[in-house]
Design goal:
alpha/beta; 4 strands; about 25% strand
Length: about 80
């Protein structure tokens, strides 16, 4: 069975950003090979692959604005 990241089209990206991942998702992150996982969006200059978990509309709006400004090329958000 393909991993969640394979289903989300993670291919050539070697640095990704994962924000607010629940504990139940940590096993998927740990299974990634040859990928650096950043957790703080402020530390990324640009992003090409982001998986963000939000529980409120306000949080989604804040993350969307921040990540859109950092998106490079055909970023996957």
């Amino acid at each position: 069975m393909p991993s969640v990241f394979a289903k989300l089209n993670l291919k050539w990206q070697r640095e990704i950003l994962v924000i607010n991942a629940p504990v139940s998702f940590e096993a998927e992150i740990a299974a990634l090979k040859n990928v650096t996982v950043l957790r703080d969006p402020k530390k990324a200059k640009t992003v090409e692959f982001v998986l963000a978990f939000a529980t409120t509309r306000a949080e989604l709006d804040r993350l969307s604005t921040l990540l859109a400004a950092k998106a490079a090329r055909d970023a996957l958000l």
